[in-house]
Design brief:
Elements lengths: L2 H25 L4 E5 L19 H4 L11 E4 L6 E5 L21 E5 L12 E4 L4 H7 L2 E2 L2 H10 L5 H26 L4 H12 L11 E4 L21 E6 L2 E2 L2 E2 L2 E6 L5 H19 L7 H18 L7 H6 L2 H5 L46 E4 L2 E3 L2 H4 L13 H7 L4 E3 L2 E6 L2 E4 L10
Parallel strand pairs: 1-5, 3-4, 5-6
Antiparallel strand pairs: 1-2, 2-3, 7-8, 8-11, 9-10, 12-15, 13-14, 15-16
Helix pairs in contact: 1-4, 1-5, 5-6, 7-8
């Protein structure tokens, strides 16, 4: 995409935010809102800081991921004021004021202070990680629940600019996935695979939207595997890579699984089976679809695959009802995606009312019907997790499971295939596999 077109899309995005914030502030009785970018926290008893992510509502306006101690004042009918923190410092490189086209819509003010800008008179709100004392001194409401929920809801449906950023985040992440697979095929250790991913996707480890999951063999069955072995595995059954990239704050979230040179032949067939039914589920996506029902359909698809591969001897319906499929896949089908990897308002309706996950599926992060403009992940899985499967041995469901097959596949850990999907008016737009257009 050309830089000019992206600038035009960003301008339209900002115009939409100006109108939406004016409407929401009036509805909730505020004359303005001050958004704080946030700041990193120090480790206890240390002068080192934890990794930092800029507050997402702040990033919704300005693409300045990583900016600290900065403030954005939004007042209807007035140009937004961005107080940009630029300390005088010889220990660190001082940030400079941005020069991009979007800045023409803002009043920019560089400051070496961390305090908020002077607040005008009126009923105002502060949103962000701000202490109560600061809000009290300014006479402002701190993180009012109703307004915060309304701002979350505003982020549920993405603009063309946001879709373009997410698409580019997918493109860059896929370059990393390709390099990681090459490193795996060449016999690299988990750490080397991670480094190959970072190099090809052009990012530092502190910039990834979440800690990459680089799981070889049994580690692929640990859903949020958090380590990187530094020695190559002796046998190479599988690699599960869950890794993303940010562009202007917007995060991609992609998972792929590959069979290694020592894989059981059935494992490759299972990978193909999971990908096929993932694509069938994606084809169902469109406005109005009940995502909870789609999650239930995922379990039926998984039961069908397990039956086709003779890992179970019962119907797909019986596998779901008896809990077998949930032992093979304990997580949800997907989640909202945007400025946060698990983006906001996934378990609330448009009015802010709770939509809790089903009792049998507490890990499902998206429970609302789909709407045009949403971006979600679709990530079915099939895992050999002993702590979930073993309890079934002594239950009636256990007699339907091919336990020798489970034992044979256990060294492979598991499978997850994940794509990022925009919900278009006419159906799904796969941002991971199709980079042709931004149109919804």
């Amino acid at each position: 995409m050309s830089e000019t077109r992206l600038d035009d899309q960003h301008a339209a995005h900002l115009e939409g935010l100006e109108h939406a914030y004016a409407r929401l502030l009036e509805a909730h009785g505020y004359e303005g809102v001050l958004l704080y970018s946030g700041a990193p926290r120090h480790f206890f008893g240390d002068d080192q800081q934890a990794s930092f992510a800029t507050f997402a509502h702040f990033l919704h306006w300005v693409p300045l991921a990583g900016i600290e101690h900065s403030w954005l004042l939004i007042r209807p009918g007035q140009r937004p004021l961005l107080r940009f923190h630029a300390p005088v410092d010889f220990w660190h490189l001082t940030p400079s004021l941005p020069q991009a086209a979007w800045t023409r819509r803002f009043t920019l003010e560089a400051s070496d202070e961390t305090a908020p800008p002077p607040f005008p008179q009126g009923r105002l709100a502060i949103v962000g990680d701000v202490d109560a004392g600061t809000a009290e001194r300014l006479g402002a409401a701190l993180n009012p629940l109703a307004l915060c929920q309304a701002l979350d809801e505003l982020r549920v449906r993405k603009s063309a600019y946001e879709i373009a950023c997410l698409r580019e985040a997918n493109r860059l992440a896929l370059a990393g996935h390709e390099a990681a697979r090459g490193a795996f095929d060449a016999g690299a250790a988990e750490l080397d695979i991670q480094l190959a991913y970072l190099k090809a996707s052009r990012q530092r480890e502190s910039q990834v939207p979440y800690q990459n999951i680089v799981g070889l063999n049994e580690h692929a069955g640990v859903l949020h595997y958090q380590h990187y072995d530094i020695q190559p595995a002796v046998r190479r059954h599988s690699l599960l890579l869950d890794a993303g990239r940010r562009v202007a704050g917007y995060a991609s979230d992609i998972t792929r699984t590959w069979a290694g040179r020592d894989a059981d032949p059935q494992f490759a067939a299972l990978i193909e089976g999971v990908e096929r039914f993932q694509q069938r589920l994606i084809a169902e996506l469109r406005p109005g679809v009940d995502y909870v029902a789609l999650h239930a359909q995922m379990h039926l698809e998984l039961g069908r695959l397990l039956s086709e591969q003779a890992l179970i001897e019962c119907s797909p319906e019986a596998a779901v009802e008896s809990g077998i499929t949930r032992a093979f896949c304990p997580h949800g089908l997907g989640h909202s995606l945007g400025l946060q990897v698990h983006d906001v308002a996934g378990r609330r309706d448009a009015r802010g009312e709770p939509l809790p996950a089903p009792e049998r599926d507490p890990a499902l992060r998206l429970t609302r019907p789909l709407e045009a403009g949403m971006v979600i992940t679709m990530e079915p899985g099939l895992y050999i997790i002993p702590m979930l499967l073993e309890p079934l041995r002594d239950q009636p469901a256990g007699r339907h499971i091919d336990w020798p097959g489970v034992t044979r596949l256990a060294p492979h850990g598991g499978i997850r295939i994940e794509d990022d999907i925009a919900i278009g008016h006419g159906g799904p737009i796969n941002l991971t596999r199709d980079n042709a257009t931004d149109s919804l």
